[in-house]
User: What shape does this take?
Amino acid sequence: MSDTSGKSAGSDGNTSYGHKPFKRSRSHFADRILADGQDGWPVEPGRYRLVVSRACPWASRALVSRRLLGLEDALSLAVTDPVQDDRSWRFTLDPGDQDPVLGIRYLSEAYDAREHDYPGGVSVPAIVDVPSGQLVTNDYQQLTLDLATEWTALHRPGAPDLYPEPLRAEIDEVMEGIYRDINNGVYKAGFASTQEDYAEAYKALFARLDQVSARLADRRYLVGDTITEADIRLFTTLVRFDAVYDGHFKCNRTKITEDPVLWAYVRDLYQTPGFGDTVDFDHIKRHYYQVHTGINPTGIVPLGPDLSGWTTPHHRDQLGGRPFGDGTPPGPVRDDERVTPVDRV
Assistant: This one.
């Protein structure tokens, strides 16, 4: 994501949102980091750097997965400025405006190191090979699945199984509908260039949200009785919904806070270690409202919504379920990776 569509087209591309048909690009760099190194990139502790924007829902999947699995020491983290310039994602949050490990000012430099004059956009999440400085992958769909299944030798003791083999077919089916109509659906509505395209995306989005709400009415998690990859993927859209998608993307039939089931579900996850402690509402709002100048030309960032409800009781534990299965919660957030608590935003 950069324009939150998976591609970064620079400032000209940002002004074009809402003026041309929206289509999400496939990940161009789809190498995989595997336990056996079959793609040429073996799993090794300390070799790779995960580059994210805390504003981006696709990158946030990787943030949640990395934390739940306890990969902080094995896979270092670089966080970009939520507001891009015409060269896309930049490391202006770091001293000297450059990433201290990769020594680069823009993520595009890692893309160029991999493929010079690559004509596509610069997206996050991205994993960069530290020794060579080359981008390894920007495949946001596969990346977290590999963290869950290929990096197991580096998982913390007690790490949950986020993609349990007996449930994979069901998880994949649930995730496919959520991706098409919710994860990607909010963008299809928000970046629609015609009333008809907008209406189609809007209707599909809320039909799927209603379906998911019904599914979660009597079960704590989407598949099985523990947190899985499916919950991570739904969470990263729901947590942004009222803050940006409801108004900025015109997904305004109902807020998540107005659906008792979804509101309790997303609060349950938010209050689960590994979820809410990766969320930065300030980054989220500033990125969407300041970068998407095609649909918000003033760049004004709204002061709301009120975030105080995120820490209120959800009572979802009454449905049973065990968040981490036979495992344990992740430990405290590292000092250098803390985000601003909601009561201070």
About this structure: The CA atoms of residues 18 and 193 lie 5 Å apart. The beta strands are 48-52, 76-79, 126-129, 134-137. The chain is about 35% helix and 5% strand. The first helix runs from residue 10 to 16.
